[in-house]
Design goal:
There is one protein chain. With 256 residues, the protein is an alpha+beta fold. Helices cover 23% and strands 30% of the residues. The chain has six helices and 13 strands. Strands 1, 2, 3, 4, 5, 12 and 13 form a seven-stranded mixed beta sheet that branches. The chain has a six-stranded mixed beta sheet with strand order 6-7-8-9-11-10. GO terms for molecular function: endonuclease activity. Keywords: Endonuclease, Hydrolase, Nuclease.
Length: 256
């Protein structure tokens, strides 16, 4: 299978970027393997779920970012687990961590969000980890779409652990308003859970309609990513997507 295209800026001002979504189980597993997987995927944005959020969580997340060639953009403990890392190619406009309504007896959930630019291409970004409860998860899906619209960007990307397969109500709701990366341009592996026995797709990257999905899936054949590291790093497999983000109107070369 051909590799996903590398990050680049096109002559028309659009940006090809690589986005990785990954549930890292609070870094309770082999963190060296985790950093190797992230680094080998050469992402521009890393949308994490279950980032460390308790004792010294910032230091743990900073170590992972440094070891994988990234910097912390936002999230972690302040978003109840979701976080965003980025490479130095990204220019950050703003960030916001959002805590969702708490259902008694269930875990607190949140969104890590940002608005970034890659040259003349502007992008809203959201990392999420939805509830194990179907009822709460469906409500969170609606809140996710509302939050994405509130970012005020024409183009946006979402990565997350949905705790639901594509046939589920929340997954279908998101896929009805956004492009499901794997369904749009399948590449690599499909199933994200579990690394030892991949049998279901519960993690995904979504993009708004104006974004071109060049390929999306589990990076099984990505150079530098080994099966040993994927099994050791965490209890999910990552999802890697290559996306082409259009330049903002009036910013492309030759625009009037």
């Amino acid at each position: 299978m051909p590799l996903l295209p590398p990050s680049r800026t096109e002559p028309d001002g659009s940006a090809v970027i690589r986005v990785l979504s990954y549930n890292i189980r609070s870094m309770r597993d082999d963190t060296a393997a985790l950093a190797r997987v992230i680094g080998a995927c050469a992402p521009d944005l890393v949308l994490l779920q279950e980032a460390p959020r308790f004792f010294r969580w910032r230091k743990k997340l900073a170590r992972l970012a440094a070891a994988s060639g990234q910097v912390i953009l936002t999230g972690g403990g302040t978003a109840a687990g979701p976080a965003i890392l980025c490479g130095l190619r990204a220019t950050v406009e703003r960030t916001e961590d959002v805590l969702l309504p708490l259902t008694p007896g269930l875990h607190r959930r949140g969104f890590a969000t940002a608005v970034v630019r890659f040259g003349d291409a502007r992008l809203g970004v959201l990392s999420c980890h939805l509830s194990l409860s179907g009822r709460e998860r469906l409500a969170q899906g609606g809140l996710l779409l509302d939050r994405l619209a509130a970012l005020g960007t024409e183009h946006a990307v979402v990565g997350g652990d949905l705790n639901e397969r594509p046939t589920g109500r929340t997954f279908r709701r998101l896929a009805g308003g956004l492009q499901d990366g794997w369904a749009t341009a399948p590449w690599g592996g499909e199933h994200t859970s579990t690394p030892a026995d991949p049998h279901q797709r519960i993690d995904a990257v979504f993009a708004t309609r104006g974004v071109e999905v060049l390929g999306c899936g589990v990076p099984l054949d990505q150079p530098g990513v080994t099966g040993t590291d994927l099994r050791a790093a965490t209890d999910h497999l990552p999802v890697l997507a290559a996306l082409r983000i259009p330049a903002r109107p009036g910013t492309a070369p030759g625009a009037a």
